[in-house]
Amino acid sequence: MKKLIWIFIIANISISCNKSELKNDNVIKFWHFWSEPYQAKVIDSLISEFEKETNIKVELSQLSWNNGKSKLIAAFNSGTPPDVLELGSDWVAQFSASDVLAEFPKKDIEIFTEFSTAPSYWDNKIFALPWIVDTRVLFINTDLLNKVDASIPNSWEELLDIAKEIQDPKNEIYGMSINGPDKNRLYKKAMTYIWSAGGEWQYENLTSAENQYALTMYKKSVNVGIVENQRNIDRMFLQGKIGFHISGAWLLNMIKKENPTLNYQLSLIPGMNKQIGYSFAGGEYISVSKSSKNKDKAIQFVNWLCNGKNTLEFCKKIPEGGFPADKNYFNDDFFKSNPEKMLFAEQLVNSKMTPVHPKWLEIQDVLEETFERVIYDYDNPIDALKLAKKKIAVIK
Predict the structure, then answer these.
(1) CA neighbor of 39 nearest in space, from 235, 345, 253
(2) Are the CB atoms for 134 and 322 separated by under 8 Å?
(3) Is the pLDDT reported for residue 351 higher than 70?
(4) To which CATH superfamily is domain 22-134+282-352 assigned?
(5) What is the pLDDT of residue 320?
(6) Model confidence over 74-85: pLDDT tens digits?
(7) CATH code of the domain occupying 137-280+359-395
(8) Buried-most residue among 18, 118, 169, 328 (CB within 10 A)?
(9) Quick one: which H or E segment has residue 345?
(10) Best CA proximity match to 188, nearest among 201, 176, 205, 175
């Protein structure tokens, strides 16, 4: 009798273990950065559709942009990474070069817009799929523009001339916004100046005439505007205190909610020195952990999530979500019906992503420090760039 009882117990333990293994085989963990309540609700809804279609369970964990990257690195270092993870476009190279991400088949990249695919590659292999892309445009206070009897500027030089006329700090009115010390944000504005001046932030040409011109123009901007962090200058534009301001789609939502009577218009980023105006292009990328026990299901989920049909639903419900990276949905009729969104789409054609480099975040720190040194007159442009080159020589 005792022998039969033990057999029964062992059998039940075995069945229980098999069920547990089966359950784990059908569950993948996804860490993402859409943590605002209304964003999380959209993510939950999207994931529910995937679960219904595939019978694969997705466990979600929210990260913040303040410490999310550190948590991801800690998870990989401790051997407990999620199966699927969201990465910013300028993070992908660091993770790809660290040999912690699973490789995607080459065919999986074919559906995406060409400009979005560069961060996906490392050593000619694909370690992340583009999900969402977006950019920034020029916001213009129409009342302040009309007050000085000016029209939308066609060049950055013209923009500075108009901003000078608008500038009235005694009455808290500023010609334009300038990003000051603001880690992980200043570089986005800095790259807009560099690209629009015809420059690049590469070691080989750091001290180029184009980069010197970009820094010179940044310093001139300081004299006809206000230096603040992105959050504060967004708020000041919202309050009608800034003439020209570069920002993203999130500001549109803020205006509609908090100051719908603000008289403003949008424009493409103007160029400098007869160059094309370029904006900063950001993107969200989805990767799979190399150590995932459910790699096939994780890759299946990533392909589903990054398919434009599903990404479009996400972008429709989260206005600041941007555009699907899937080229078949990038110019969907949904966006064509919204002139403001189409201007962002038009700017994306003349936008760039940061260089693909595993130590970009260190290089980015040097970039921000270089602009800060010029803003506060510690160095002139050429000396600041020479110092930057010495620092980047150590990093690279």
Answers:
(1) 253
(2) yes
(3) yes
(4) Periplasmic binding protein-like II (3.40.190.10)
(5) 82
(6) 999 999 999 999
(7) 3.40.190.10
(8) 118
(9) helix 339-349
(10) 201
